[in-house]
Amino acid sequence: MTEVLVVVAFHSGHGHTARQAAAVAAGAAGVGGVSAELLDVGDVGEAGWARLDAADAIVFGSPTYMGSRSAVFQAFAEASSTVWAQGRWRDKLAAGFTNSSGVNGDKLGTLTSLAIFAAQHGMTWVSLGLPPGWLFTADGSPTDLNRLGGFLGALAQSPSDVGSDLAPPDADLRTAAHLGERVAVAALRLAAGRALVGA
Ligand SMILES: Cc1cc2nc3c(=O)[nH]c(=O)nc-3n(C[C@H](O)[C@H](O)[C@H](O)COP(=O)(O)O)c2cc1C
Fold it and tell me: How many domains does the structure of the chain reveal?
């Protein structure tokens, strides 16, 4: 059986995005032949960079701070310029997720920045692949998968006065798990294809 590695590279200032990251990793690890690891981008170190090099897919996650990715994630992105210069992540799969307090909260700014970051590295972006839930149709529910209606990546919302023990809600964690599973399956397919064509 093909073994592939999905690394979930994330920042979380107060634990909410960390819960979303854990859900992404659990979704990926639930797919046979796939292992998933969490990596705090605020503390990568030599071993962390090596795990990123070894990954078949990297799922990037950040809270939305002031309408974009956090300063800690940005520092990680800038630190990856050596990786970029050497093309070490080229042709790996990538995907992204973000969490913020506003229902909208300008989360798209974060996801867009993550997708551009992945594109700069020559990675192949995997979308969320779910229909929008909740208010997309009148009979929707806030417990729907993809309740926040994103396509580019997984979205989560945590009220600013609710701790990470209670937020983000289950629907958003299930959405994150779906993204992890989708990336894992895509990584398996890519590995199988590579084995066939020898590249
Ligand atoms: C510096 C800062 C900026 C923030 N900017 C936004 C924002 O632009 N939009 C929003 O909806 N929430 C914003 N928030 C709220 C966070 O996104 C929210 O608290 C989130 O759950 C934090 O995730 P974390 O616990 O993983 O850090 C901001 C919070 C901080 C600390």
Answer: 1
Distance from the alpha carbon of residue 11 to the mean position of ligand 1, in angstroms: 12
Domain with 123 in it: 4-197
Q: CATH code at 52?
A: 3.40.50.360
pLDDT higher than 80, residue 199: no
User: Distance (Å, rounded) from C-alpha 76 to C-alpha 90?
Assistant: 17
Overall pTM > 0.80: yes
142: buried, middle or exposed (CB in 10 Å: 19+, 13-18, 0-12)? Answer: middle
Say yes or no: ipTM exceeds 0.95.
yes
Residue nearest to ligand 1 atom 28, measured at CA = 65
User: For residues 79 and 76, what is the distance between their CA atoms, to the nearest angstrom?
Assistant: 5
For residue 158 and ligand 1, the question of a CB distance below 6 A is answered with yes
Tokens of 23: 């859900």
Contact 64 CB / ligand 1 (< 6 Å): yes
Instruction: Report which residue type is found at 131.
Output: P
Using CA atoms, how far residue 21 sits from 74, 117, 136, 189, in Å, is 17, 18, 25, 23
Higher pLDDT, 126 or 198: 126
**pLDDT one-digit tens code per residue, 48-71:** 999 999 999 999 999 999 999 999
